[in-house]
């Protein structure tokens, strides 16, 4: 049997730019039907903006044990920012989590650590829990500089954050070379880097805070590799991409403890 986690595991599905609101509603209903009723992990679905309201309505109506997240947000409450979504808008929809600094936002939309830092400061103001993504590209990994790279990300992104808020953050370690590629860091490698992240949080804030923060692994998480990932002592959950778009696969990931019996 897996050792019981001292932090409640969090399993989140990032749908990216997939699923209309109608298909999203169907998917979340299928997920809710299949997950174990006594599940001790926190389950989060993170659909596109256009599906947030519809899915939140279904979650509330059916009293699901599923929480709602968003994929991104602006750092201002309102303003002339065509195409953007503010944290106040997300809060009005009872969104509980939001991804900040996903590698695809960094790569395709030129998001910097400084911008991500602004978003983190704002998201805590409106009391939504951020999922901060960090992780190195393949070139950095091949050079053996992944610790230095992630250290710099953490230093810049968490700069000036209030210690009272930081314990509510979720950090997702996502090695960029393992996102959507089918490649996965070995569970031991992922655990090593997550342990390093926890040590860094301890230095930046305090050992008590570092023990409270949940740190996920993300990067080609599938039903076949979920157990080796989740039995690692430092890994508190997973941020799932493609596999979260298939109800059967995502349910299998959520119900990973069944495979341990």
Describe it for me?
The chain has 261 residues and is of the alpha/beta class. The chain is 41% helix and 14% strand. It has twelve helices and eight strands. The chain has an eight-stranded parallel β-barrel, surrounded by five helices. Strand 7 (214-218), helix 11 (226-230) and strand 8 (237-240) form a beta-alpha-beta unit. Helix 1 (21-34) packs parallel to helix 2, helix 1 (21-34) crosses helix 12 and helix 7 (146-157) crosses helix 9. The longest helix has 18 residues, at 187-204. The radius of gyration is 17 Å and the shape is globular.
Can you tag this structure with a few keywords?
261 residues, alpha/beta, eight-stranded parallel β-barrel, 41% helix
**Order of H and E elements:** EHEHEHEHHEHHHEHHEHEH
Q: How does the major sheet shape up?
A: 8 strands, parallel, barrel
Number of strands: 8
Shape: globular
**Range of strand content:** 5-15%
Low-confidence stretches: none
Kindly report the spatial arrangement of strands forming the biggest sheet: 1-2-3-4-5-6-7-8
As a percent range, the share of helical residues equals 40-55%
Radius of gyration: 17 Å
How many helices does DSSP assign? Answer: 12
What is the end-to-end distance? 7 Å
Report the mean per-residue pLDDT as an integer: 94
Name the structural class: alpha/beta
